[in-house]
Automatic annotation (TrEMBL):
<keyword id="KW-1133">Transmembrane helix</keyword>
<keyword id="KW-0274">FAD</keyword>
<comment type="similarity">
    <text>Belongs to the NADH dehydrogenase family.</text>
</comment>
<feature type="compositionally biased region" description="Pro residues">
    <location>
        <begin position="448"/>
        <end position="458"/>
    </location>
</feature>
<protein>
    <submittedName>
        <fullName>NAD(P)/FAD-dependent oxidoreductase</fullName>
        <ecNumber>1.6.5.-</ecNumber>
    </submittedName>
</protein>
<keyword id="KW-0285">Flavoprotein</keyword>
<dbReference type="InterPro" id="IPR045024">
    <property type="entry name" value="NDH-2"/>
</dbReference>
<dbReference type="InterPro" id="IPR036188">
    <property type="entry name" value="FAD/NAD-bd_sf"/>
</dbReference>
<feature type="region of interest" description="Disordered">
    <location>
        <begin position="437"/>
        <end position="458"/>
    </location>
</feature>
<feature type="transmembrane region" description="Helical">
    <location>
        <begin position="6"/>
        <end position="23"/>
    </location>
</feature>
<keyword id="KW-0472">Membrane</keyword>
<dbReference type="GO" id="GO:0016491">
    <property type="term" value="F:oxidoreductase activity"/>
</dbReference>
<keyword id="KW-0812">Transmembrane</keyword>
<dbReference type="Pfam" id="PF07992">
    <property type="entry name" value="Pyr_redox_2"/>
</dbReference>
<keyword id="KW-0520">NAD</keyword>
<feature type="domain" description="FAD/NAD(P)-binding">
    <location>
        <begin position="6"/>
        <end position="340"/>
    </location>
</feature>
<keyword id="KW-0560">Oxidoreductase</keyword>
Length: 458
């Protein structure tokens, strides 16, 4: 190993966290002797376990239990909260913008490194649809999940108290765009929650609400197979959810969702989950990218043609050596990301010690998806499950994958308590503007939200 190996990990998501965990475990002696140092740069001080976002939105899990604090878990790493804005791998330097950068007015901070692990993940892929930027909400972060929960409950409050039928109809119409995991699971959990909450409103029945899923392709949840995808459509429609296949959102301007089939739905809720794209920082590097903007990687998780640069997860195009037939890439999903991170961490250590690298090879085990409480679909090792068994498998699998025993115990405890007591259906949208009431009391003018969006919950 070099006299001092400086390892920079860009990103604190699945790959960033698990790689750093692996590195600090494998390099424990070197870190103690000062022969290695690990720096993790992340825009947030926590990692979000995204498969639990739908349950957090539905109130089945506390928001703080779907995030993992980086500083507590990565106690042997130097955690920097900030964004990588550029990487010059030829000079082995990364430019970082931190929370203090704007205060100091000195520009980005330069961090030198010897080994680079790029794991910035992905961002929502949007389209130039009129009104989308003004009215839609995504579903990639815990803040978005909780904001959406608050928003749905507040729309029910509006519908319950208004005398205007048009306002009531728009408040009770919820449009989800995208039939992948995020869209289907978020819709399934929130519809389940709203159906339960309706029993506490004297003038709202579950059948008064319109839930609409818009998908541009001919199927939803392609990861669970065609048969389970068809079952999911049937199950959702049985719950009075309007599933529109081969349909696109063309506009949501003026709070009206206009679909490509000519349908128009006045709505105050548009949830955008129609895919992701590589993080923009990849374009600000001198590393090779493929036609879709992902890093070209080898099966050993090195960046092709760039020594001492490594990548995995959503940001990386990794060849799938276990796939039969023509060459394919590993799907950018959590299952591959978790396993790639372990191999990546081990390979960085092997490289530092001059040992041969390991090839990443993992046969896809299958997929599980939740459709609400006690409802789900799964295809695991060729076996198809639906209903309660699939839902139970979904929970069991993700509980085993969430990092740290602390988080596992807390989530399991919450699920146990949720089985004994009733759901919580409280909206805390005012948390997003905590100074508003004090500003008003002090004679100031509180922040003004749009009149059709009370408390700024979406």
């Amino acid at each position: 190993m070099k006299e001092r190996a400086r390892i920079l990990v860009v990103g604190g998501g699945y790959v960033g966290l698990y790689t750093a965990l692996r590195l600090q475990r494998r390099l424990k002696r070197e870190l103690g002797r000062g022969e290695a140092e690990i720096t993790v740069v992340s825009p947030d001080p926590y990692m979000t376990y995204q498969p639990f976002l739908p349950e957090a939105a539905a109130g089945a899990i506390s928001p703080r239990h779907v995030v993992v604090p980086l500083r507590r878990v990565l106690d042997r790493c130097h955690v920097v909260i900030g964004e990588a804005t550029g990487i010059d791998h030829a000079k082995r330097t990364a430019t970082i913008s931190t929370l203090a950068t704007g205060e100091e007015g000195t520009g980005g901070r330069q961090i030198p490194y010897d080994e680079l692990v790029l794991a910035p993940g992905s961002v929502s892929r949007t389209l130039p649809i009129p009104g989308l930027a003004d009215h839609a909400i995504g579903f990639k972060t815990v803040e978005e999940a909780i904001g959406l929960r608050n928003h749905v409950l507040e729309q029910m409050d509006i519908a319950s108290s208004t005398r205007d039928p048009a306002i009531r109809d728009a408040a009770l119409t919820f449009v989800f765009v995208g039939g992948g995991y995020a869209g289907v699971e978020a819709l399934g959990e929130l519809e389940d929650m709203a159906r339960y909450a309706a029993r506490y409103y004297h003038n709202i029945r579950p059948e008064d609400m319109k839930w609409i899923l818009v998908e541009a392709s001919a199927r939803i949840l392609p990861e669970v197979g065609e048969e389970m995808g068809r079952y999911t459509v049937t199950e959702l429609r049985r719950r009075n959810i309007d599933v529109r296949l081969e349909t696109r959102l063309e506009s949501c301007a003026d709070r009206v969702a206009v679909l490509s089939d000519g349908s128009r739905f006045p709505t105050r809720t548009v949830v955008w989950t129609a895919g992701v794209k590589p993080h923009p920082v990849l374009a600000a590097t001198d590393l090779p990218l493929n036609e879709r903007g992902r890093l070209k990687c080898t099966a050993e998780l090195t960046v092709d043609g760039a020594p001492h640069a490594w990548a995995a997860g959503d940001a990386a195009s990794v060849p799938d050596v276990s796939a039969e037939g023509p060459p394919r890439e590993c799907a950018p999903n959590a299952q591959h990301a978790l396993r790639q991170a372990r191999v990546l961490g081990d390979n960085v250590v092997r490289s530092l010690r001059g040992e041969p690298l390991e090839t990443y090879a993992h046969k896809y085990a299958g997929s599980v998806a939740s459709l609400g409480l006690h409802k789900g679909v799964a295809q695991v090792y060729g076996r198809k499950l639906k209903g309660y068994p699939a839902w139970f498998m979904h929970r069991t699998y993700h509980l085993s994958r969430v990092p740290t025993f602390n988080r596992k115990a807390r989530v399991a405890a919450e699920w146990t308590l949720a089985g004994l007591f009733k759901r919580e259906i409280v909206s805390l949208g005012s948390l997003e503007h905590p100074r508003a009431e004090f500003e008003l009391a002090a004679g100031g003018k509180p922040s003004q939200d749009p009149p059709d969006n009370p408390k700024g919950s979406s």
